[in-house]
Amino acid sequence: MSAVDALESALRTPKGKTALVAYLTGGWPSQEAFVSLLQDVSSVADAVEIGVPFSDPMADGPTIQRTSQEALANGVTLEWILSTLENMSPRPAAPLLLMGYLNPFLAYGVERLARDAERSGVAGFIVPDLPLDEADGFRSQIEAHGLGLVQLVTPVTTPTRRDALCDAARGFVYAVTVTGITGGDVGIPDGLAQSLGHIRARAKAPVMAGFGIRRPEQVAALCDHADGVIVGSALLDCIRAGEDPAAYLRTLSSHGEEVTS
Questions:
Q1: Which residues of 57-93 are buried (b: 16+ CB within 10 A; e: fewer)?
Q2: What's the pLDDT score for residue 57?
Q3: What is the predicted pLDDT for the residue at 182?
Q4: Residue 86 has what DSSP assignment?
Q5: Do 240 and 29 meet the contact criterion of CB atoms below 8 Å apart?
Q6: pLDDT class for 177, splitting at 50, 70, 90?
């Protein structure tokens, strides 16, 4: 089984369960703390998305921007993240993805990136500024190493474009719940259930809803319409506040006992 196949399998949870993808900024809050933090989070989440710090993000809200700036100031690089993942022992319990912007990936070299990512236990990539129409080269090089390229579908994506993105997605389809940036707490917008239904009907990969997921009742509201949820800014806020991130994730995941339905 390829790495991306294993990722998709991990996110296809039994009926009545909601898969959980957790986001961590690579190398934050410190290089030393990141490894144990990743181990803790991966013991609860079904997959972990590791953000590659970048100075000019386009989709990240204030929380993720701030953690990225702090990680960059501490010397975190893409090379450091891949090397750290490769040398972790034991390996994280959940499949991993790298979320990052195209410039650092191109600067690293896509073939080298695919090779090193495979060796580091990475299953896929999320690249928000890589349009579907320009992704063939990147996709072909990572797929040669058994890795997948996640595609994002937003509330303003046209039906034709949505279907093309769903067809191309591997790992999962990232269903953006709101128009805007990460980190808000805007509730579940009207029409979202219908939109997710269209995506699930077309997608071959699991459908994960993200942006603004913070509370158990939001997860409960989405569990019948998506295969799972993505939690990023709220988790980073929890870590910054000195709280237990694994305990927080358990309150969101239907694998735990505290989520309401």
A1: bebbbebbbbbbbbbbebebbbebbbebbeebeeebe
A2: 67
A3: 46
A4: H
A5: yes
A6: confident
What is the mean predicted confidence (pLDDT) over 70-92?
97
Q: What contacts 182, CB < 8 A, 6 or more positions away?
A: 59, 60, 61, 63, 64, 210, 211, 212, 232, 233
| Residue among 207, 233, 198, 205 nearest 23 (CA) | 233
Domain residues of the chain, as ranges? 3-9+17-149+214-252
The larger pLDDT score, comparing residue 212 to residue 196, is at 196
How many angstroms separate the CA atoms of 210 and 226, rounded? Answer: 10
More confident site: 13 or 190: 13
Q: Give me the sign of the Cα torsion angle 244, 181, 260, 51.
A: negative
46: left (phi over 0), alpha (psi -120 to 50) or beta: alpha
> Which of these CATH numbers, 3.40.50.300, 3.10.20.340, 3.20.20.70, 3.20.20.140, describes 3-9+17-149+214-252?
3.20.20.70
CA 25 to chain centre: 11
Q: Which sequence positions are flagged as catalytic?
A: 49, 60
Report the alpha-carbon distance of residue 216 to residue 125 in Å, rounded: 27
Residue 180 binned pLDDT confidence (cut-offs 50, 70, 90) = very low
